[in-house]
Design goal:
Distance between the termini: 25 Å
Protein name: Ig-like domain-containing protein
Keywords: Signal
Largest sheet: 7 strands, mixed
Structural class: mainly beta
Radius of gyration: 37 Å
Number of strands: 53
CATH class of the largest domain: Mainly Beta
Length: about 700
């Protein structure tokens, strides 16, 4: 079997070298716009934070869904964004007529698009350099000026040539830092003095500075996981230090003490601190302050013990027990929580309640069962989500607090949101023979609406007006029947029939299909090029070897195919003898195989000088066989020892002339006759096999 495969590979290589060479010569570039991966750029990463380990941030237009960039801080240099919108090389007559970089300020806003050939893509102070051309696409590169302007935006590429338009998926920039800067522009408070803290005082709320009326509200994309720019910490002090805001800040800078060392707590995005419960750490003489790395010279709030006239350290008395006879909720017992999918910045569900914990029992559940694997260990007050929040984290979470007193139950209806997510990619390329249907499906989660685009044009199947409009723009699609999308939950199926070759068209009903899912958070766009292929057109067909077909002569059979329509496919041309591939005969050790040679498009039947073998070639037929495959079959052939199994795998096969009942003229008759003039030579012992 191994020997057979080696012969098969050798034959295939001969034919493929010829066919691939012919294909390259026939191919001068693509007609339809297709985004392609950029070498060295990761195409399956959808979340970035800046500053981070990636600089510059490079996003590829071939990515299958929306990419999110969060600007969470500013260190040394402004982040840079490179949006690579490269296309498969286009033929000279199909180059881009426009290459827009587009920007939206929100999902519902109109797009503002700029073609770098006419002007620099610039919005306010953010300007993009464009490097590229009309046949290969562009890379757009900009420095994002952190802190100077609001960077919230959506960016995408919209490229068009005479055959249609293609939009890339979006890059969303969320400028967390800009809103944090606005949040810390609040007034500082004078030092405050608290009485001794006791267990019955907990939970305790402490505010960070005084919010101004002009302070901006958080943007619509901000959710329960918006990171607070405020930092609370204790400072260890003594009477010799003095109890002043300066001394506390100085100590906190040198030796910060985390609030978590002494209290279970939560800090809300607006800076409010909730002290929930004491830890077991031994108490020290300390002050408590709220500051921000963004305005490092400001102490928004500082708390000491004692009084203004006689300040001292904060004190905690562990000897005063709870006196309440029941648990008292201090936060809503039912909350609807919205969290964005992706890195979650320490998202927490927090229950604020008062009551003795001596005999209390707490239990967190999700949808009535256990908390899923991967969550950190919950506390009596808080459940922290994993760093990467996923859609399956949606659900009903509950905290049940029970003990000697009547129990209470906190419920949180958590919805994980985000732009639509592609669960299953459609094929980037679908090869379809004319007369067959084109059908494929994709799966997109969490969309609210779907849009079908044909060559970039929004199309509503079933509408005669829409069909006329599409035919006016693309006459070669006038006969195509595009069926309504078959939508079953996340599964979306596309189907088109009556795919024919319109006279004068070089690629028949070939078209680009884009299925777009959208919701209030963004888009997911998936595109498929449906390349409609004609049946092979033969420039030369094998002729019969009859009636004069002598064994002493060499006979040639030629079969030439017009390869121009198959530039995106892998074509294999081979020969059958009486229905069996000649390479298979050779692998089986069949004597007939010794007399066959292939050269380019020609099969040579060598002279048969052994009279006993002439009959093997009588009343036979030789057939030219054309097989069309997806190009990916080449890699599969290179990695497999069983070539025939690969070639018979239906996922690679597009066309096989052996099963095409409508193709004629591929077979020629061979009726080899013994040449009587050879008898003298044979008697003299000069015959050879």
């Amino acid at each position: 079997m191994i020997s057979a495969n080696r012969w098969h590979v050798r034959l295939l290589l001969v034919w493929c070298i010829y066919l691939e060479t012919a294909s390259v010569l026939a191919r001068t570039g693509e007609h339809f716009v297709q985004f392609i991966p950029t070498p060295g750029v990761v195409s399956d990463r959808f979340y970035y934070e800046s500053p981070g380990s990636v600089h510059p941030i490079e996003v590829d237009a071939s990515t299958t869904q929306q990419v999110r960039i969060r600007i969470v801080d500013f260190l040394n240099n402004n982040p840079e964004l490179k949006l690579h919108c490269h296309v498969a090389p286009l033929s000279p007559d199909s180059e881009l007529t426009s290459a827009f970089l587009c920007r939206k300020t929100s999902v519902t806003a109109n797009s503002l698009c700029v073609d770098p050939k006419t002007q620099t893509p610039q919005w306010g102070e953010i300007a993009f350099n464009a490097i590229g051309n009309r046949s290969h696409g562009y890379t757009f590169h900009a420095e994002l000026l952190v802190g100077r302007v609001l960077l919230d935006a959506f960016y995408f590429c919209k490229f068009r040539n005479k055959w249609g338009e293609l939009n890339s998926n979006m890059v969303e920039v969320q400028d967390v830092y800009y809103y944090q800067i606005a949040m810390v522009k609040r007034d500082a408070e004078k030092p405050q003095y608290l009485p001794t803290i006791k267990a019955p005082d907990l939970p305790m709320r402490l505010d960070c500075g005084t919010r101004r009326w002009s302070e901006k509200d958080l943007p619509t994309w901000a959710d329960h996981s918006f990171p607070s720019p405020f930092l609370w910490s204790f400072c260890e002090l003594s009477g010799a230090d003095g109890y002043t805001d300066y001394q506390c800040m100085n100590k906190a800078r040198k030796h910060p003490i985390g609030v978590s060392d002494y209290f279970e707590h939560v800090v809300y995005p607006n800076g409010t601190l909730i002290l929930l419960g004491r830890t077991a750490a031994a108490w020290k003489y300390m002050g408590l302050l709220c500051r921000s790395h963004i305005r490092s010279a400001v102490i928004f709030s500082v708390f000491f013990g004692g009084t203004e006239s006689n300040p001292g350290p904060l004190m905690y008395d562990p000897n005063v027990p709870y006196t309440d006879s029941s648990f008292r909720p201090l936060s809503p017992m039912f909350q609807k929580i919205t969290v964005r999918q992706g890195p979650g910045s320490g998202t927490q569900l927090v229950a604020v309640y008062r009551g003795s914990r001596s005999f209390a029992k707490t239990e967190w559940t999700k949808d009535g069962g256990r908390i899923p694997f991967g969550f950190p260990e919950p506390t009596a007050f808080a459940l922290t989500f994993p760093e990467l929040i996923q859609r399956n984290h949606s659900g009903l979470y509950e905290l049940h607090v029970s003990g000697r007193h009547p129990s209470i139950r906190f419920q949180y209806e958590v919805t994980v949101v985000g732009p639509p997510e592609v669960i299953q990619d459609p094929p980037a390329l679908l090869l379809v023979m004319e007369g067959h249907e084109a059908m494929y499906h994709t799966e997109i989660a969490s969309y609210s609406t779907t849009t079908l685009r044909i060559n970039g044009e929004v199309f509503f199947p079933g509408s005669p007006q829409e069909h006329r409009k599409l035919s006016n723009h693309f006459p070669y699609l006038k006969d195509v029947k595009i069926h309504p999308l078959d939508i079953q939950g996340p599964r979306i199926q596309y189907r088109a029939s009556n795919l024919v070759f319109t006279p004068g068209s070089s690629f028949g009903s070939t078209h680009t299909v884009t299925i777009e899912g959208a919701n209030e958070f963004g888009y997911a766009r998936v595109s498929t090029l449906i390349n409609v292929l004609p049946r092979p057109a033969f420039l030369k067909l094998p002729a019969d070897c009859a009636p004069r077909c002598l064994s002493s002569e060499e006979h040639t059979f030629s079969c030439e195919v017009d390869l121009r329509p198959y530039a995106m496919a892998h074509v294999i041309q081979s020969w059958d003898w009486n229905g069996t591939d000649i390479s298979v005969l050779r692998g089986q050790g069949d004597a007939r195989a010794d007399y066959f040679q292939t050269e380019g498009i020609t099969l040579r039947l060598l002279p048969v000088r052994d009279p006993s073998r002439v009959s093997l070639f009588a009343n036979s037929h030789v057939t030219c066989r054309i097989r069309i495959y997806y190009k990916a079959v080449q890699a599969a052939l290179g990695n497999s020892e069983n070539v025939e199994r690969v070639l018979q795998d239906s996922k690679w096969i597009v066309y096989d002339s052996r099963t095409d009942t409508e193709t004629r003229g591929l077979s020629s008759k061979v009726d080899l006759q013994l040449d009587s003039t050879r008898s003298t030579d044979e008697r003299n012992g000069f015959s050879s096999s």
